[in-house]
């Protein structure tokens, strides 16, 4: 089952690649000649670096990046939500204790 799930990611990877390629083509079509030359040199250097990366790493790169992005977003969000939850519980407990003490002090004062 695990390997079947991994194999199902190939269409996703192809879709992401097609969208990225289309976006890059759009950027190239609207930029002036000088910018295209600079971007072409940059892309050439990026391609050289990309060629040096082993295939095993390239295959796992999309999942790794998604995991990193999600963990950078979700972990702080979850911590924030848990902190808010506990603050609300503590505030309710504090109010209940104050009310209880208020009732006890009013009984003692009579």
Describe the structure.
The protein is an all-alpha fold and 110 residues long. It is 94% helix and 0% strand. 0% of the residues are buried. The mean pLDDT is 79.
Helix-strand layout with pairing:
Blueprint: H1 2-7, H2 9-30, H3 33-52, H4 55-109
Strand content: under 5%
| Largest sheet entry | none
Unreliable segments of 5+ consecutive residues: none
The geometry reads as: elongated
Report mean pLDDT, rounded to a whole number. 79
- What's the total helix number? 4
Give the N-to-C terminal Cα separation.
Answer: 72 Å
Radius of gyration, in angstroms, nearest whole number: 28 Å
What is the structure about, briefly put?
With 110 residues, the protein is mostly helical. The protein contains four helices and no strands.
What brief labels describe this structure?
110 residues, single chain, mainly alpha, 4 helices, 94% helix
